[in-house]
Design a protein that fits this description.
mainly alpha, 4 strands, 61% helix, two-stranded antiparallel ribbon, 19 helices, two-stranded antiparallel sheet
Length: 604
């Protein structure tokens, strides 16, 4: 691995680790109602919000009421965003020439569900199909709202461990409001200003038309008004030469969307090229800021958890597990991309060695300003952080390099993960490990003094089985139907299977990144990926809230001689082993048929 890439990885992890403790403490104070330095300005605004919405801030909810509020809020957001996308032509576009039409019903529904579930799966080109109003009022607003709702679920889950003999998990509306006002909004304002400083646009100007420095031309078949090819008298298609002398440079309120999409672990992008576009991510500094925005809050929630349950060492153990798995992913993906394609090297046509004049390795689909190191770091961070804000095309990675982001999502994004969702993902995997360990010694498993009985294990098992069942069933449906296979316009065989698996995995993980060789803008994929998104958001969150409600009712037991210390190296190894074994048992066959076979076909 290149030394410069290793330095990037090390600096990134050091910054995240340095921020985990203070940010975790700040989140604790926010959601426990303690004083913060933002209170003088935000407390009056918070009270106004409650008064206008008719919210009783002192009312506590049990898990059922909390879940209902979460679902109703998400449904309202979906309907509102769907309406905006369908009436888009009637909204002001800020451009006298560019007037995007409405999204088709299936694409509008997919996009609305995508942004409300923080998936931000985009089967469209943002600069071509979205107006400024849709991008800012519709998509950017949902990035705040959906991200805050996910954080609220994570905080409610923590309260299940922190409280005793109660059914109360807090108030969803209060948690949502405080997540927006105290966390997402101030950090996004600061982050947006930093991006503008680095060159990210933040305007409502019309698209800029500029002449090309070097005009070019290309040939295309002539078509009639219905899109059918036009032929000459001999039946041959008529080919026209098209001269290109100018280009259209899209712009808009990019910075407003860019930072919150990362901070709220939403992903997506103002432009089709996402974080690879120079207007979204122009410099190495913006690349660092954006991936820090993805990782810091989810990582800091481990400290929030430790503080709220009164066991800070347990929070550090969870963070340590995440870092070990993160480093493993970086090392494997970086090695695979730096090694490049062995067939190209064997043919003798491409020199993939690192020299003073070239970075070597597999640079296909990567921006030269980021190189392999910056691309791999972003790929691993986004796939671990439930944020599909990539800066390189993962479909162009080597088979093993592309498999690593896929594996990160298949494991349930237990490494940092989404905003709130990552914390409860790793804790639920930990509970599976404790249950297995308890069976070995004949003892009822418990975590932080809360026993894990049959009812709790049923909820945990439901959570663990929903993901594999959804991904594998939808993948099987896609590969055996003409509707599903029609999306494989570029690749078939093992790589085509990887593209389909990646799509459903990304949707269920509420991540949103994709292998772009799959044409997913069809009714079949718009509907099935939306189904996976809803399962990943609500099908997993509701059992988590039910489990939190069960745990909050229980008294905390004192640790005994047979209690496994959850702040120990043994516990960390047990959790890592559980993550690997459960993931392998669930997904190894489909990985063997996809990226593993593709790697073996390279002749290595």
């Amino acid at each position: 691995m290149h030394l410069y890439a290793m330095l990037q990885y090390g600096v990134f992890l050091l910054i995240v680790t340095a921020l985990v403790y203070p940010v975790g403490g700040y989140l604790t104070r926010v959601f426990m109602g303690e004083s913060t330095w933002l209170d003088p300005g935000l407390r009056p605004l918070e009270r106004v919000c409650y008064r206008l919405a008719g919210i009783d801030a002192h009312h506590e909810m049990d898990w059922k009421e909390y879940a209902r509020a979460f679902v109703v809020f998400s449904l309202a957001g979906t309907l509102l965003l769907y309406a905006i996308l369908r009436i888009q032509p009637f909204l002001h576009t800020f451009d006298p020439i560019y007037h995007p039409g409405p999204l088709s019903p299936d694409l509008a529904l997919n996009t609305a569900i995508s942004f409300v579930t923080t998936t931000t799966w985009q089967a469209y080109s943002g600069e071509n199909m979205m107006s400024y109003v849709s991008q800012s009022v519709g998509l950017t607003a949902q990035n705040f709202l959906a991200g805050a709702a996910g954080l609220a679920i994570g905080i409610a889950f923590i309260r299940g461990f922190a409280r005793e003999r109660t059914t109360d998990l807090g108030n969803f509306w209060v948690d949502l409001t405080r997540a927006i006002l105290w966390v997402l909004l101030p950090i996004s304002l600061l982050g947006g200003l930093l991006l503008v400083w680095q060159g990210v646009p933040a305007n409502v100007r019309p698209y800029q038309i500029v002449p090309l420095v070097q005009p070019t031309s290309y040939q295309q078949s002539r078509t009639d008004s219905d899109g059918h090819p036009v032929t000459d008298t001999s039946g041959n298609p008529i080919i026209d030469t098209v001269q290109v002398t100018q280009q259209i440079i899209p712009q808009g309120p990019v910075a407003a969307l860019e930072f919150i999409k990362n901070l709220g672990t939403n992903g997506g992008g103002f432009f089709n090229a996402n974080g690879a576009h120079p207007y979204e991510n122009p410099t190495p500094l913006t690349n660092l800021l954006e991936i820090l925005a993805i990782a810091v809050l989810p990582a800091a929630l481990t400290q929030t958890f430790g503080r709220m349950v009164g066991r800070r060492r347990d929070g550090w153990v969870l963070y340590g597990i995440m870092v070990v798995l993160f480093i493993a992913g970086l090392a494997l993906c970086g090695w695979a991309e730096q090694a490049g394609n062995p067939r190209l090297g064997q043919a003798g046509h491409v020199d993939q060695r690192v020299t003073d004049g070239q970075p070597g390795g597999n640079m296909e689909g990567k921006e030269t300003r980021f190189g392999i190191g910056g691309s791999v770091l972003t790929a691993i961070t986004t796939s671990n952080g439930a944020t599909g804000s990539y800066n390189s095309m993962h479909d162009s990675y080597t088979p093993l390099g592309g498999m690593l982001p896929l594996v990160n999502m298949l494991l349930g994004e237990v490494i940092f993960g989404g905003l709130g969702t990552g914390l409860y993902s790793i804790i639920l995997v930990s509970l599976i490990g404790l249950f297995v360990g308890g069976l070995m010694v004949g003892r009822t498993p418990e975590y932080l003094g809360k026993p894990i009985g049959p009812t709790e294990m049923k909820l945990i098992s439901l959570y663990a089985l929903l993901g594999p069942a959804t991904i594998l069933i939808l993948t099987a449906l896609a590969v055996v139907t003409d509707w599903g296979k029609a999306g494989l316009t570029t690749n078939g065989g093992p790589h085509g299977l990887s593209e389909i698996v990646f799509a459903y995995t990304s949707s269920l993980a509420n991540n949103g990144q994709n292998f772009a060789g799959l044409n997913a803008n069809t009714p079949f994929y718009n509907i099935t990926t939306a189904l996976a998104m809803m399962v990943g958001r609500f099908g997993l969150a509701i059992p988590v809230l039910a489990l939190a409600g069960r745990l909050a009712l229980q008294p905390r037991r004192p640790a005994g001689l047979g209690t496994l210390p959850t702040d120990s190296l043994l516990f960390a190894c047990l959790v890592i082993g559980t993550i690997v074994i459960v993931g392998g048992l669930s997904y190894f066959p489909v990985l063997a048929l996809g990226p593993v076979v593709e790697h073996l076909l390279l002749g290595t």
